[in-house]
Amino acid sequence: MTDHIIVTDEGATRTITMRRPEKKNTLTQEMYLAMSEAIDSAQSNPAIRCLILTGRSGVFTAGNDIGDFLKAATEADDGARPRNSVIFLQSLLNNTKPIIAAVDGIAIGIGMTMVVHCDYVIASTFTTFSSPYIQYGLVPDGATSLLVPHMVGQQRAFAMLLMGREMSAEEAREAGLVNQIVAPGHAVVEAQKVAREICALPADAVAIARRLLKLPTEEIERRIGQENHFFAERMHSPEALAAFQKFFTRKQR
Fold this sequence. Notes:
Layout: E1 5-10, E2 13-18, H1 29-43, E3 50-55, H2 66-73, H3 84-94, E4 99-103, E5 106-108, H4 110-117, E6 120-124, E7 128-130, H5 144-152, H6 154-162, E8 167-168, H7 169-175, E9 180-182, H8 187-199, H9 203-213, H10 217-235, H11 238-252
Helix pairs in contact: 1-3, 2-11, 3-10, 5-6, 5-10
């Protein structure tokens, strides 16, 4: 579907790698669908016990492609068709297998959203997390408005999701968002070690315990729907359109 998503199966682990280095792994509509398919197809494959999400070239992902945002903001809204990012988020939500984030570099916007949905997070010392949706006149997505306060507390969530403050790898570990910090270039190797450790555990017990640890799926799905409603409205707002156009004007200078 796209050359920008690399899916590899090694042993009982499937690794999904974002590879669009010239654009800091920003996500296109095709990339969302490719990642969704990689997650969905693993659900019915008993040979796959664990998933890893990562990015190439020292970057996790800079988030959504702003070009797609600008295009959506200037087109008529097709409310009957969900955004591909929402399809991908539904795949993350409905995934029943342990998923590890191997983050080496920036994780912006939906990049941070992905991390919040993962079960175990490994970050390099160069990693930073940010969610600058408000600066673009938008709102948080992927149930981050529910999950981030639950994980890191209301005050930290306010600073990240509303003010767009950046969080370092060490700050993220202190806040409970990151399990382990490693040297640059080692996140995937460490993620593979963690995956092997998980895969050695009894599969059914892992599945049940993982489900018990998470907030109810219905609650998360309901929040995704609420956020998506406001997100779609905001996409066509004068504030958002001005922010997208300012972004491209700044890039062309």
